């Protein structure tokens, strides 16, 4: 506990990082899919934001929301050369409990640990919550950090629509933002000296290495494309089979082609996890079908080219059309090697691991020195309810983050 000046008051010890995660374990549970569904500006995510702001204020941190809706909890006046940590609170549909929230609760817990160690940062320190990291509502990943850094133009973001057709501009206004002010915030980015994101590992690297914490080395190049197949909507029973232009057929053939094409590009991973027929009636031949492609790795351009060719051929054979649109792209990121090695050494030569997942830290790394810490995930599974981290590793991660922040805030 701390009084409003931020000095700790003798009281019951703050909950550990695993205790903070337990506090929010019931927020945004998805009763139909399992796991969690928490999307920007929806009830669950707004509840989590309110919880975060309350926890931060209880610790004497000054909480502010930037023009893009990202939350910043400051220990010390927001000034230049700040050390910032944090992650996101939103999830994929039916996602796990750790992807995102682990980095946020670890930031709060690291503040408690620094105080317990009697460390007062010599630099401003902030815990940040970025909005819409998963792109689960508006389709573009790391929306909050891309808007902050200007790597996504505001006018493009404002036009994005969620599955109900609500634009980001409308949702932002309902969420209390002023759409006309959304966009790059170079003044705020200019305050950041270093950024460190702690994240549950999405893979089994630490399981195989047998340790609780690693530092990040690289983030895979990755992008998202939307293929829209168009045919002729019609009645399922009144339309003879030889009188159809059913877009579901080329869509299905393209899903199979993605797997076949990716199999021939050893370092590339391509996935179709979302396919939406319109109108989506059981007794209706679809008029259009949207297929979203997620492709990652060094050979993505060739893989996307081959997928597009397969989609066009399949569409033509069924008398349909297909349109391919790039929704987002992120180049491969190599985290700052000097900062990486400094953090690794501070953590007793923690191993450095690559990741196949995108992160806000990767977006920030184009503008400020950024690092990542990973916490062991015994299942290696992520973006699914089986995502997991033992309490002991969660708390070891918060201790490692506190050690890292103490080093960087000297
Ligand atoms: O999709 C990703 O790689 C990240 O989890 N947003
Ligand atoms: Mn994720
Ligand atoms: Mn994440
Ligand atoms: Mn492959």
UniProtKB/TrEMBL annotation:
Short name of one Pfam family: Peptidase_M20
Keyword vocabulary terms for this entry: Hydrolase
SUPFAM superfamilies assigned to the protein according to its UniProt record, in alphabetical order: Bacterial exopeptidase dimerisation domain (SSF55031), Zn-dependent exopeptidases (SSF53187)
Hydrolase among keywords: yes
Family membership noted in the UniProt record: Belongs to the peptidase M20 family.
NCBIfam families in alphabetical order: hydantase (TIGR01879), PRK09290.1-4 (NF006770)
Protein name (database record): Allantoate amidohydrolase
Organism: Prauserella alba
Taxonomic classification: Bacteria, Bacillati, Actinomycetota, Actinomycetes, Pseudonocardiales
